[in-house]
Amino acid sequence: MTRVKFLVAAGLASFLCNCSGATSTQGDAEKLMQTSREWSKAAATGDTDAVLGYFDDGAVMISEGQPPVRGKQAIREYLAGTSKIPGFKIEWEPREAKVSGDMGYLIEQTRLTMTGPEGAPVTREFQAVTVWRKHKDGTWKNVVDMSTSAAPTAP
Amino acid sequence: MTRVKFLVAAGLASFLCNCSGATSTQGDAEKLMQTSREWSKAAATGDTDAVLGYFDDGAVMISEGQPPVRGKQAIREYLAGTSKIPGFKIEWEPREAKVSGDMGYLIEQTRLTMTGPEGAPVTREFQAVTVWRKHKDGTWKNVVDMSTSAAPTAP
After folding, report:
1. Predicted structure pTM score
2. Domain spans, chain A
């Protein structure tokens, strides 16, 4: 193969790789960060269908001291349950994103608020890792949503 | 471009994609499961250097109620600390693996044992998600190691 033909083929290879979403890009990481921010906004509205739309069909939620919640239907029921908790509010902020091919993950900080036993809002901080798959339409869907208590903050 | 040239180029594209580890394979997922099992065995021996060898230089450990431990040196110090805990033993078993390109994740079940206040071993169960990057030499290195308490088991 001549050098020119090799370069053409290598360029085509690179193009095909991009088409299948197999190349890691900073743009994908930024898109994942933005998806997380939009998801947090959807969660703040309490719109279960909107929140659910960010999950992959086979997603699993793993939370502290709870059995894993597997699949979109189980997650729907879980979200319906949280929406009935007095004063329930959840919001989060992505801190970093890494992407390779059609998989990526985020490290996030999450804040959960509920009405406490004395009627005042009680807020707890969590640290989260979420894993994502890029679907063929270019959207990122959450496949693993895992959280655990953050370290106690200094008083 | 003739059809033959296109097929040759597409074949080369596929070959190049495989070379860069950009193709998701069941083999990679199984290799990741096996890496996790070997890592657990290394942890059982208490050999800090062996355990540390599974971490990527930029790895982060996220544990319940603790600040994240970032980077191999900080993780080394963390592991040295756990090795001094009386009766400390950690072991885990991977339950499922997914891979895309040079990124993958595992869902694992972890068992931590320490000597309790009354001198008898106390065991706690955790659920873990670990994220991995495939290095150029084909080895998988851990980039995120996150755990949280499992659900209490029925008495």
Report:
1. 0.83
2. 23-149
- The torsion angles phi and psi of B92, rounded to 5 degrees, stand at -145, 165
For domain A23-149, say whether CATH 3.40.50.720 is its number: no
Task: Tell me whether residues A17 and B13 touch, CB distance under 8 A.
Answer: yes
Separation between Cα atoms, residue A148 and residue A110, nearest integer Å: 9
Distance in angstroms between the alpha carbons of the first and the last residue of chain A? 69
Question: Hey, are the CB atoms on A107 and B147 less than 8 Å from each other?
Answer: no
d(CA B92, CA B155): 22
Write the single-letter amino acid at A36: S
Per-residue pLDDT tens, chain B, 155 aa: give them. 454 444 444 444 443 433 334 444 689 999 999 999 999 999 988 889 999 999 999 999 999 999 999 999 999 999 999 999 999 999 999 999 999 999 999 999 999 999 999 999 999 999 999 999 999 999 999 999 999 999 998 76
**Closest Cα of chain A to B22: distance in Å?**
6
Closest Cα in chain A, distance from residue B133 (Å): 9
**Residue A119, amino acid:** G
Mutation site for A-interface testing, chosen from B63, B99, B131, B153 by largest number of A Cβ within 10 Å: B131
CA–CA gap between residue A122 and residue A12 (Å, rounded): 56
User: What DSSP string runs through chain B?
Assistant: --HHHHHHHHHHHHHHHHHTT-S--HHHHHHHHHHHHHHHHHHHHT-HHHHHTTEEEEEEEE-TTS--EESHHHHHHHHHHHHTSTT-EEEEEEEEEEEETTEEEEEEEEEEEEE-TTSSEEEEEEEEEEEEEE-TTS-EEEEEEEEEEPPPPP-
- Distance of residue A113 Cα from the nearest chain B Cα, in angstroms: 17
CATH code: domain B24-149 is: 3.10.450.50
pLDDT of A51-71, one tens digit each? 999 999 999 999 999 999 999
